[in-house]
Amino acid sequence: MSTDCLFCKIAAGEIPAEKLFEDDDILAFRDISPQAPAHFLVIPKKHIQDPAGVGSDDEELIGKMMRVGSNLAKEEGISAFRLVYNNGASAGQTVFHLHMHVLGGRPFSWPPG
Ligand code: 5GP
Ligand code: ZN
User: Fold this and answer.
1) CA-84 nearest atom, ligand 1
2) Taking the C-alpha atoms of 43, 90, 14 and 2 in order, what is their torsion angle to the nearest 10 degrees?
3) pTM (predicted TM-score)
4) Which of 11, 73, 99, 105 is the most exposed place for a label (fewest CB within 10 A)?
């Protein structure tokens, strides 16, 4: 746990969040500022700064994040959704604890802005 990390604090239950799924490894919770009718985040409980910080030991963890996030979208009745990881401030990353955005419930354009 990184003591000054917002998402470590959410993972530890020190800051409240609207949780959708939790196990020993990962947590899914609704984004506080949703950019689509459905917008939630899936994070590892352990602190990883960003996608570039993912190690070979984390491959199973990252697969689980994708499986659980996709299943949660389906459970919300959303079949078309977007999974987004931002890496670095100029790519839009504002919280430096790895998180996968799951966005759905409206059309999305490509390429992203
Ligand atoms: P990033 O811009 O780093 O890819 O995404 C960070 C996301 O975290 C943003 O969509 C932002 O709305 C969300 N967020 C920031 N602070 C909080 C918080 O305290 N609680 C929740 N649930 N989401 C947050
Ligand atoms: Zn953290």
Assistant:
1) 4
2) 90
3) 0.97
4) 105
Active site residues: 99
Cα–ligand 2 centroid distance for 73 (angstroms): 24
Rounded distance from Cα 17 to ligand 1 centre (Å): 11
Closest atom, ligand 1, to C-alpha of 6 = 19
pLDDT in tens, 44-90: 999 999 999 999 999 999 999 999 999 999 999 999 999 999 999 99
Nearest to 40 by CA among 50, 55, 27, 49: 27
Q: What is the pLDDT of residue 1?
A: 72
Domain ranges of the chain: 6-104
- Going from the Cα of 62 to the center of ligand 1, the distance in angstroms, rounded, reads 19
Which mutation among 19, 33, 42 tests ligand 1's pocket best, with the greatest number of atoms within 8 A of CB? 33
Classify domain 6-104 at the CATH topology level: HIT family, subunit A (3.30.428)
Q: Does 113 score more than 90 pLDDT?
A: no
